[in-house]
Amino acid sequence: MITVIGSLKGGSGKSTITFNLAVWLALGEQHVLAIDADPQATLTDVVDVRTEEGFEPPVELASKKLLHNRKELDQYEEVLIDVGTADLASLKQAIRIADRIVVPVPPSQADIWSTQRFLRLIDSVVGDNRRPEVMGFINRGDTHRAIRESDEAAAALIALPGIKFIKARLAQRTAFRRSFSEGLAVFEMDPRSKGAHEWNALAAVLYAHVVG
Question: What's residue 146's pLDDT?
């Protein structure tokens, strides 16, 4: 299955999500390939760190050239594509070949508006062809219960047509940044942390067949 982790806004956590998914799927004995189609190459940087540190399992990474080679991609059980608007041509090509698109949505009105525009872009790219499943969840949410912005963003996301809302969410936690900078998935650095528990809940929804 080809899964695109995408959005129109930078800073939504696409590379962090892609990297953690790649490690999680590899640990689940899935034949997985990650593609870095973002000119910022953040995913490439973290995979380089992981490789240099010798962490297992390794993350197999490819460039955006493979977006045009479906035969090669079909050799993998799971393909993850990290892409954004910095390379609009690659984003459109990723949408064309995607089985599904996962959209991390930070809790702000601007990100809800951006998600609406992204859904319109998806529709314009696929036209009358098969539309990939589109799923969205709250990423980098509030950790303080008194702050309601994440709940308000979730309510707005639920109301958007053309996207399936995922209830599991990831909070804005230092553990995600720290583990990422060290070339580790959040659940590798501290399996008992809140971030790891949040991650496992999200991954179980996205890849129920792996845990089932």
Answer: 62
